[in-house]
# Entry
Amino acid sequence: MNALASLFAALMNLPERPMRWAQGRLSGGRLGWVFVAPNLAVFAVFTFLPIAIDLHYALTGGTNLLPAERPFVGGDNFASLLDCSNHFDASSCRRDLFWYGIWNTLRFVVFQVGLMLVFSLLTAIVLNSKIIGRGFFRAVFFYPVLLSPVVVALIWKWILQREGILNAGFIGAGITPVNWLLHGNWAFFWSVFVSIWAHMGFYTLILLAGLQAIPAEIHEAAAMDATPPWRHFQRITLPLLMPSVLVVFVLGLIRAVQIFDEVYVLTGGGPGTATTFIVQYIYKTGFADQVRQYGLAAAASLLLAGVLLVLTLIQLRGMKRG
Amino acid sequence: MIRATALAASVLAMGFAAATAQAGEIRIACYSDGNECESTEVLAARFMKDNADVKVTIDKMPFKAIQESLPVQLAAGQGPDIARTTDFGPVMKYMLDLTPYLKDPGYWEASFGPVLGWMRADAKDHGIYGLMTQLTISAPLVNKTLFDQAGVPVPKAGASWDDWATAVKKVQVATKIPAGMAWDRSGARFSGPAISMGAKFFAADGSPAVVDDGLKATAGRVVDWSKDGTFARDVWVAAGGGYRDAFDEFANGRVAVYLSGSWQLTRLEKQIGDGFEWVVGSAPCGVGGCTGMPGGAGFVAFKNSKNPKDVGRFLDFLASKPVYAEWMVMTSNVPAHTALQNENLPYKLSPAGIAAVQAFGTNAALLTPLAYRLQGDPMSRPIFNAVIDRVSQAMSGQITLDQAYARITADVSDAVAASKK
# Structure
């Protein structure tokens, strides 16, 4: 045991000499860089380098994979993606599938984030109140978060397909079955629904933590003043919960913009392009089509990164204000 | 994201496999339609007994993993020695010309001549790049039990697609099945009927010219049929993009006719068995002939192989007439070997399976030169994808057929332009 302790101490002392040497040589400010250097190296290799490579692909064309074999095309890929006679009508665009992806993603973000915020908030409020089986319900709502997106999608596919469980129930009840995944609006509705079902638990948990962080005395004071419940919620709970709501909003927004896996397995992007989102377009263009247009896919991914960057800045600004 | 992870894992697995290849070792990236990889393992074991200096390792992986990750792997110089693929275009520039490593290239030309061209870049290319592991032929598979129940005769040889549509519609109404017929959501499947209806796919100068009256006749019919239950709309519309097979529709008796092909034999035998009586129909006819589409997967060799001589030896072994015949029997595949096509191979199949092989053989004789040419053209996959994706959009009502035609032309032009850069 003693030998082990000595070995441990010796190991811990190993960096001491070089650190003393560095301290002697470098002034306090520069020494900080030594400490952050390992992290910076990780960032450089796994974040900045891929961005630089992505940019290289976006500025080059052809189907060759090796960067050195790709001809420089400047902004052609971006121009091609943005070439539309009317940007609000995807069918008028040269890369119509990209724009179907953009508009579908935007529609998805509005519905999914909005509804998820409302349902997460309601669920968190209910789970924060003194109901019977509160622990059980908290686990139930969180459970889908633990599932893989592919499992989530397959479960719902079995429920929603033509001969699925839902239609079996309809037939049993004498109701005409609906081919849910064959109609664009229904497929879109279910994409939003399944995504909310899968992720709501996580956001509910954040809001629940936010609710529990509100000091009990404030609620007690409001109760003593006989504040009506809606006014209590509107004037006390919601304002104090706003930092958590903002976190949920921004995280949900970023996740919604990146939507791909669940919907891809559930609908494949169909019917037609009704549930084709921007990440699916990038995947298809870069990896699934037989003529692989890496440049186009890279340009589309950079545009998506731009959107995510703006959303992140909004989050940072909101958090600063909070 | 999960798909991306799976793809990355496949790339890593293939990379690791390639990186760990030793002298005298051949690694094969293989997928199975039925039992192709397992049968190859049996034959490889025999090969290794006679060639103790060579080790053949078969890495089994899903079709999609090979299709999506193989070009990336090869571009990085980390591919396998041999891969089983149906998609030769994207990997063509990495393929190894086996001619110097084969005992008798003349035998290969004589035995596999019509399909060797599928692996060649153009007419000037005379290399031998691989061995077809099967010859597939698309044809209508018929649920005869449903036809009998409806009292509708199965259309005979020489019947047109309209005759077939009328017949399956009658069966659908009489037996109350969801749809009369289903086609795999596949450009190759669509192209057989399209060529029969007069589609040419190429201009006089050889460049792709996909939209013509023949293609319009086919697309128009398919969209119309999908509206009245003649055609299983789900398979094409609900899939989003890419390939989707309709085997389950047929196996579960939800359609009377299924346009698929000979590679389904093992599944037909195993999954349907005597569940209902099924037969292979004659390819429906039109102004362009009575053709389905040929196709199939091949074992192709790659330049990055460190043991090209051993690759040649192994493929020579598989291509030899008795071994190839045995292989076809084991896998229940139609041989790409021209001499074997005229022999009655002792398939271990049910009477329905044996009849099916013969019917596929009859249909093989009807395949038109254009069908062979389209299948082997390096731009065939972009053409196939553009057609199915855009026709599906028209079927879903998202765009009109005229818009679909314009998009098909634009998509193919873009793909041609990108591939030339």
Chain A has a mean pLDDT of 90.
